[in-house]
Design a protein that fits this description.
One of its GO terms (molecular function) is anaphase-promoting complex binding. This protein has about 230 residues and is an all-beta fold. The chain contains no helices and 20 strands.
């Protein structure tokens, strides 16, 4: 697929639609069933698009940019239907709640350090939590109403939060550089983090869907893998 004029820093799937965000400030929708490079182009950000996430029902797309903006789009819009400007640094971390329709979390960069929560159904800013560090990633547990944030400067930590109280259930340390990547396993129990220290760490964080208990946090563990350079 071609079409962006500059680097692509964010991707998000919605069924057969792949959305891409670029340093050229645009978001493109690529339908893998179509011959065209892209089927629609979204504009609105004034700087690089560094975060993208479709809601679980595929009805809303959230985008974050280096312009400190968080936008929400519907599948048919070419301009954002909601605009949020409260962050004071780049918005790379975005996560939709699988538990409540329209609940969106976003995290700001080094000058911001905050996780903010939004109700996109009522267009309401719900709350803000200062984490003390750059917010790099967010992911919501499918099994319990908790979420994980990964961080950069200055602490490079991983935090497990209970929502909506935002009480800390665990602070996971071990990475020595900012934690740039975060993914959750299909069963919703394990997360993997990747950092600038060239390690992957696997953490057993969330309970199984059957147990619905946070007691498993007492046995959180990590395994590190050191990668070899291939070039």
């Amino acid at each position: 697929m071609e079409s962006h004029g500059m680097r692509v820093g964010a991707l998000a799937w919605s069924s057969s639609l792949l959305s891409s965000g670029s340093r050229d400030k645009s978001i493109l929708h690529h339908d893998i069933r179509a011959q065209e490079d892209y089927v629609s182009k979204l504009t609105g950000h004034k700087s690089e698009v560094c975060g993208l996430k479709w809601s679980y029902d595929n009805r809303q797309l959230a985008s974050g940019g280096n312009d400190n903006r968080l936008f929400v789009w519907n599948p048919h819009s070419i301009q954002p239907v909601l605009k949020y400007t409260e962050h004071t640094a780049a918005v790379k971390a975005i996560a939709w709640s699988p538990h409540l329709h329209g609940l969106l979390a976003s995290g700001g960069g080094t000058a911001d350090r905050c996780i903010r929560f939004w109700n996109t159904t009522t267009n309401t800013h719900l709350s803000c939590m200062d984490t003390g560090s750059q917010v790099c990633n967010l992911v919501w547990s499918k099994n319990v109403n908790e979420l994980v944030s990964t961080h950069g400067y200055s602490q490079n930590q991983i935090i497990v939060w209970r929502y909506p109280t935002m009480s800390k259930l665990a602070t996971l340390t071990g990475h020595t550089y900012r934690v740039l990547y975060l993914a959750i396993s299909p069963d919703g129990q394990t997360i993997v983090t990747g950092a600038g220290d060239e390690t992957l760490r696997f953490w057993n964080v969330f309970p199984s869907p059957k147990s619905q208990s946070s007691d498993s946090l007492s046995c959180i563990g990590a395994t590190s893998f050191v990668r070899s350079y291939i070039r």
